[in-house]
Design goal:
The chain has 267 residues and is of the alpha/beta class. It has a single domain, classed as NAD(P)-binding Rossmann-like Domain (Rossmann fold). It contains nine helices and seven strands, in the order αβαβαβαβαβαβααβα. Helix 4 runs parallel beside helix 5 and helix 5 runs parallel beside helix 6.
């Protein structure tokens, strides 16, 4: 049977006007994504545990001509997350998009990580992702619509970061929980995906020595780190109607690193 091809207006597939969009992690990558989605017409609600980061990003958006608001939120605390999400629903009646970018790391040899180190990293990167996905997922299940995009890491697919064992483990877990959430949320027309970026040019990379990046960049097709703005296209696609049949996926945005590293490992 010949499939029915419907005429689709491309602009409607990437329509973000007035879509209620929660972005966790207000600084760095979160600020760039907030500006990009605001330019696309989305209503931006920032969530972060640090008020100064939220205020700076709100000001940056205001300076660019866009409105945004923030709710102080501790993603490691499910009560804080639930209260923040309820506040958004009370005001807007729905949540269309979750961009979960909040993440942390610490660096030391794998044998030297303390319980406090491990609890801190897993608490933010893994537990925080679960709590945010759960709270927003409950809303999206009721409205039978929504897009969730969690930021993982290429380090969750291939070990590439010196002295970052709990971070890489947490991001590998994020990729798997995305698949689990995607399977259970699909009947409610909720898409859940992840982006696995390479090193992003944010303050988080400042601790790594130049020698490390010289070595790692030699294994990328572009020979450099990823600029935050270069994640915007992938994020817009995976949260748009153009990706309505895409769920449970981990999209590597890594400048070819995963491909080249795999090739080297086979030599």
């Amino acid at each position: 049977m010949k499939p029915i091809v419907k005429e689709t207006e491309i602009s409607k597939l990437f329509q973000f006007t007035d879509k209620v969009t929660i972005i966790t992690g207000a600084g760095g990558l979160g600020e760039v994504l907030a500006l990009g989605f605001a330019q696309a017409g989305a209503k931006i609600i920032l969530m972060d545990v640090i008020a100064s980061k939220c205020a700076e990003t709100v000001k940056a958006l205001a300076d660019a001509g866009f409105n945004a608001e923030y709710i102080l939120t501790d993603v490691t605390n499910p009560e804080s997350v639930n209260a923040a999400v309820e506040q958004v629903v009370e005001k807007y009646g729905r949540i269309d998009i979750l961009l979960h970018t909040a993440g942390v790391t610490r660096n030391k040899p794998c044998l030297d990580f303390t319980k406090d180190d491990i609890d801190f990293i897993l608490g933010v990167n893994l537990n925080g992702t679960i709590y945010m996905n759960q709270a927003v997922g409950r809303v999206m299940k009721q409205q039978c619509d929504g897009k969730i995009l969690d930021i993982g890491s290429i380090g969750g697919l291939l070990s590439h970061m010196d002295q970052s064992m709990p971070y890489e483990a947490s991001k590998a877990a994020v990729h798997q929980l995305v698949r689990s959430f995607a399977n259970e949320m699909a009947p409610y027309h909720v898409n859940v995906n992840s982006i696995a970026p390479f090193w992003i040019n944010t303050p988080m990379i400042a601790h790594q020595p130049k020698e490390y990046f010289d070595r790692v960049f030699a294994l990328t097709a572009f020979g450099r780190c990823l600029e935050p703005e270069e994640l915007l296209g992938a994020a817009l696609f995976l949260t748009s109607d153009a990706a309505n049949f895409v769920t449970g996926q981990v999209l590597a945005v890594d400048g070819g690193y995963s491909t080249i590293k795999t090739m080297h490992s086979l030599e």
